[in-house]
């Protein structure tokens, strides 16, 4: 064999080994999902914006304890303690088989990134902003569900309905109990870096039985000066605006939304823990908005969780929301909500649940008018965020539900 041929053979073998090297990297991909279906009753149901004609309704409900979904998530060891990670998650209606957001295959999450135990993680794609990531452990939805137990209409974004497209999110490693996170979602509007963007910053402290988090988030409408919610807005779901309810219906033309929240929790023992939250939410008008004064909502809530046995979980919660007087409103809107939940564990993957909720609304709020502006109406009740499009026509609303959830 010639020297030249021997050298060529060595190069070919070296290239082959190099090309095959990634096959030896440790990696994993997991298929997972949740199916959650039940039956619910509400004392009054009408269309959004209506204050008359409500009737009681019994219907099949889904994604109540946890949103029905399936997904793929994975990680690959890149060496040096660094891993590549990804997650693709699709929500669906278990009662009909339809996508939870029509036109979006992976409507819940769709991101890729890198993570390192010493330096933190950086991910890019459709995901939850830092505000939710840090505050979620203290959210009322943990034990009361978002469907029945989120603060009215999920006004403060402590449930999972606000997902941001085009998001870069960094989360630090945990240092002495502290974790910090920041995210920025690019609107991609030509000539403007700010229009349509979402940005957030948050921090969390968790050590022993004590937990505390604070977060801020701003969502910008991609429509210049406010008005109809622009499709380039990063919290858009196939062009639709999240979080429209009887509470915020008259403010959906805002130029921007701002949320500041504080959450805390304390674990007494293996049976009892308590969590509490406070939030300040502002809907900011622009020149194209249908309202003129900043709408401000303050909400406080508390949840007590009791686990008397390994198979049982019980919880009770209360929240109070009050709006400011603005935009011709002479009596501030107020919402008081009471929640109970019961969960029975059948197995590691399957459980049964029951939920009861009551809300009382008082005062006035805004609703869109047929002329394109807004007008003042009496505030009506809307439990959690599962009834955003089907609120009560009156000031009171009772809701009960029961279902089964299976995780795979």
Q: How do you describe this structure in short?
A:
The chain is mainly β and 408 residues long. 8% of the residues lie in helices and 49% in strands.
> Structural class, from helix and strand content?
mainly beta
Measured as a percent range, the helix fraction is: under 10%
Overall 3D form: globular
Estimated radius of gyration: 24 Å
Secondary structure tally: strands: 19
Low-confidence stretches: 1-23
The H-level CATH homologous superfamily, spelled out, is Porin
Q: Enumerate the strands of the largest sheet in spatial order, edge to edge or round the barrel.
A: 1-3-4-5-6-7-8-9-10-11-12-13-14-15-16-19
| CATH topology descriptor | Porin
Please work out how many helical segments DSSP would assign.
4
Largest sheet: 16 strands, antiparallel, barrel
The figure for the number of domains is 1
Supply the CATH class.
Mainly Beta
Question: How much strand content do the residues show?
Answer: over 45%
Task: Let me know the average pLDDT.
Answer: 93
Going by CATH, the architecture would be: Beta Barrel
GO molecular function, one term: porin activity
GO cellular component, one term: pore complex
Subcellular location: Cell outer membrane
Keywords: Cell outer membrane, Ion transport, Membrane, Porin, Signal, Transmembrane, Transmembrane beta strand, Transport
